[in-house]
Amino acid sequence: MYMETSWQRRRCWWWIMVGLLLLVVAGGASGGEVTYDSRSLIINGERKILFSGSIHYPRSTPDMWPSLISKAKEGGLDVIQTYVFWNIHEPQPGQYDFSGRRDLVRFMKEIQAQGLYASLRIGPFIESEWNYGGLPFWLHDIPGIVYRSDNEPFKFYMQSFTAKIVNMMKSEGLYASQGGPIILSQIENEYQNVEKSFPVTGPPYVLWAAEMAVGLQTGVPWTMCKQDDAPDPVINACNGLNCGETFIGPNSPNKPSIWTENWTNRYHHYGEDPRERPPEDIAFHVALFIARKNGSFVNYYMYHGGTNFGRTASAYVPTSYYDLAPLDEYGLIRQPKWGHLKELHAAIKLCSGPLLSGIPTASHLGEQQEAFVLEGKQGECSAFLVNNDRRKNVTVMFHNSSYELPPKSISILPDCRTVAFNTAKVSAQYNTRSTVQVNKLNSADRWEELKEVFPNFDETSLRSETLLEQTNTTKDASDYLWSTFRFQHDSSDDQPVLFVSSSGHVLHAFVNGLLVGSAHGISNTSGITLNNAVSLNNGANNVSLLSVMVGLPDSGAFLERRKAGLDKVMILSKNNAKDFTNYSWGYQVGLNGEALQVYTEEGSSKVRWSSFNSSAQPLKWYKTTFDAPAGLDPVVLGLGSMGKGEAWVNGQSIGRYWISFHTPSGSPTQTWYHVPRSFLEPTGNLLVLLDEEYGNPLDISIATVSISKVCGWVSDGHPPPLTSWTGYNHKKHEKSHGRRPQIQLSCPKNTTISKILFASFGTPSGDCGSYAIGGCHSSNSRVVAEKACLGKRQCSILQSSRIFGAIHVQASLKLCWLRRNANKINEQL
Fold first, then answer.
1. pLDDT band at 791 (very low <50, low <70, confident <90, very high)
2. Stretch 735-752: mean pLDDT, rounded?
3. Where are the beta strands (DSSP E) in 16-161?
4. Residue 161 belongs to a domain
5. Could you tell me which residues come within 8 angstroms of residue 603 by beta carbon, excluding any fewer than 6 positions away?
6. Which DSSP category does 655 fall into?
């Protein structure tokens, strides 16, 4: 079924073969005493099965938070989880910032207002693909400091910040023990990954961190993820793709099984293609964790990834973060991941009674098949039927009934008889996101430019007789460090070559004001080298080397020892090799345009911009203005014509871009860059870009993003829709047992269905991109769909021959679902 929606001038095209949307009734969260036992967290004396999702407040904007949290709640989540980002809250020792996107209290209160719980991962080391793992760089300059070890200077500042956050939450009454939403806190983060590097100071540090956190008396439990030896009463938790298989379990019989990070896909670096994780795989491992590991808390990392604004991304990490999560970068629902997990949550919640009170028993149903059965105190029975075979459909016998299990799937039976959900059968809608160009900034008259000045040795004030380490010099105040020197050259040395090795990420080399070469590294490599022939003057020559970082590392032991920047510089020729590593160097931290803040309205007005000139030259600033697109759809900036740099809108950085770094598939890692609506004014928005390479701003465009197409399908092979399970009574299971699936369609807000383009009750073929009527088809399909759906935002149609007609539908039923002989069907027709 294809449908068109209309809203103002916007048109949205939909396709559905058949779809399913579930109704989940979520109860409001309220504070109270939080404890735990071996089965689950206990809130106000009640055990809970909890589903959680990571949404990071600084990776979105305050005006986005209500919608993100609301969609998470609609998706069946009970908890919102976030890290706390030390380096944006304490940029200098004792100087705190909780404004704007940093407003953690406001974020917590929004979670509470929508009736959800919160999980606060203070860390304060967080990793999270965040610059320096969330640590403020000023820690680097504390004498004698060793991060994340039994080191007094580090422990002092770590405890100071942790206490600052805890006391702030307490002062606002945000812990559940005070009636607030926070039911869990986390101290440290995946420390076991680096603990072997600290054989002496690591174990006592773990003990200290646990004791310090518990001593802050939050009234809620603390966790340590990937820390098998987490000291009591801190709960050890699992992170990863398949904790139902890999988690060794709680390290105490009195602790529950908690999954802190269930990765909804894998983050990627510049130069890598995105790696999608199918919703079927996520659902399988959640159900397995619940059934096999007695899991009671599962958090999706990320549920909404968002945007790494400014320079917040760690090394080589793009600006867009976890765009393939259930809520995409812009907060739009990504189907079927969001819907499939929503159905999963609803099915597992139907099993809450037996899960929380029963003792699971496991039995084999076949060579690679097993059943996990739980019986409640009042005779309730729930079961999880698991097929671990990745290739074969298998029919198993369970409680004197047969069940067909698709490859690598789990069927959930809330009453031990009726299948409410199968992890491999996706009946949620699919959708497709599109960008619509609103404005192309292709007029040269609209642009102005400013050339960045390349400093020579005489123009620098910071001097050294050797190469300086970059981050210790810049203090992470800029991605850029100029290193310059001047030398005399004898023309008898022919074919000179400039050789530079660097542990930075990008290098641009200039000789006598001309670019002679550039180089860049890739993630997980030790550095880069440049080895280029150059033309030299007979006599004095000036060399200016611009070393660039694309974020600082975010993981590993001894971050305080990491080095970046130039390692060795030489001029090579047939007759000579001059090593300038230990030489008289001049340095400049950052670019002139950064120092002048030319990306702001005030800074821009204080410099003289030139008319746009199409002549190719690296290191240029570009400036223009644009009007905000009408409507409420997310706004993006199309930078596919640029090279590498950073972009600002009205003085706010929307992040780094690196279009010239292509993936193995031959395309840029990211071309569309999010401009939050809250950054924009209706007209005259200032856009400033710095491009290090040879970008062409005349092909930059402004666009909006929306869900343009939705498709879905169900068949008799799918479990009945969980709307029929709402308010489920185990003693009256027959009322829902055997119901046919129904297609339930839901359009985005402010849209209605205006036209049906395709509908087929039968054997349609294709996918969201192309579709066709199959050998069996009810000619009544479109009429039925139009009657049910036109003019509505939501509609549902029961899969029934009484609705779609008799002969064709009956024939299609025999062909599609009963799989009868085609010749006999043709004879009936």
1. confident
2. 64
3. 34-36, 41-43, 46-48, 50-55, 79-83, 117-123
4. yes
5. 596, 597
6. E
What would the 3-class secondary structure string for 236-257 be?
A: EEEEECCHHHHCCCCCCCCCCE
For residues 286-299, give the mean pLDDT: 97
Whole-Å CA distances, 628 to 168, 419, 636, 650, 654:
37, 49, 10, 12, 15
Among candidates 541, 495, 548, which has minimal Cα distance to 518?
548
How far is residue 560's CA from residue 136's CA, in Å, rounded to a whole number? 11
Are 67 and 111 in contact by the 8 Å Cβ rule? The answer is no
Model confidence, pTM: 0.91
CATH code of 289's domain:
3.20.20.80
Specify the CATH number for the domain of residue 686: 2.60.120.260
Q: Show the tokens assigned to 813.
A: 């039923």
- Examine the domain organization and report whether 334 and 185 are in the same domain: yes
Round to whole Å and give the CA distance between 246 and 136.
33
The DSSP call for residue 102 is G
Same domain? For 202 and 253 the reply is yes
Residue showing tokens 């009810």: 778
**What pLDDT is stored for residue 721 in this prediction?**
58
The domain boundary, picked from 349, 367, 400, lies at 349
pLDDT at 736: 39
pLDDT for the residue numbered 635: 98
pLDDT of 798 higher than 80? no
Q: What pairs with residue 130 in β-bridges? A: 313
Count other Cβ atoms within 10 Å, centred on residue 680. 17
Q: Which of 564, 590, 616 is the last residue of a domain?
A: 590
In total, how many domains does the chain have?
A: 4
Is residue 736 one of the residues assigned to a domain? no
In a shared domain, residues 229 and 95: yes
Q: Are residues 571 and 599 in the same domain?
A: no
Residue with tokens 């809620």: 220
Residue 415 pLDDT > 80: yes
Same domain flag for 528 and 613: no
307: tokens are 């945007």
Same domain assignment for residues 692 and 808: no
Instruction: Using alpha carbons only, give the angle 170, 171, 177 rounded to the nearest 5 degrees.
Output: 35
Beta pairing, strands 577-579 & 585-589: unpaired
For residue 820, the enclosing domain spans 1-18+741-829
CA atoms within 13 A on the CB side of 547: 30
pLDDT of residue 797: 78
Q: Tell whether 148 is covered by a domain.
A: yes
Judged against a pLDDT cut of 80, whether residue 813 lies above it is answered with no
Tell me, yes or no, whether 733 lies in a domain.
no
Residue range 510-516: average pLDDT?
Answer: 96
Asked if 269 and 314 sit in the same domain, the reply is: yes
Q: Which of 246, 270, 259, 344 is nearest to 301 (CA)?
A: 259
Nearest by Cα to 517 from 466, 552, 569, 477: 569
Whether residue 393 contacts residue 422, with contact meaning beta carbons closer than 8 Å, is answered with no
Bond into 741 cis (ω within 30): no
Catalytic residues: 190, 261
| Number of neighbours of residue 616 by Cβ within 10 angstroms | 11
Looking at the fold, whether 139 and 11 belong to one and the same domain comes out as no
* Number of C-beta neighbours around residue 160 at 10 A: 13
CA 575 – CA 247 distance, rounded (Å): 62
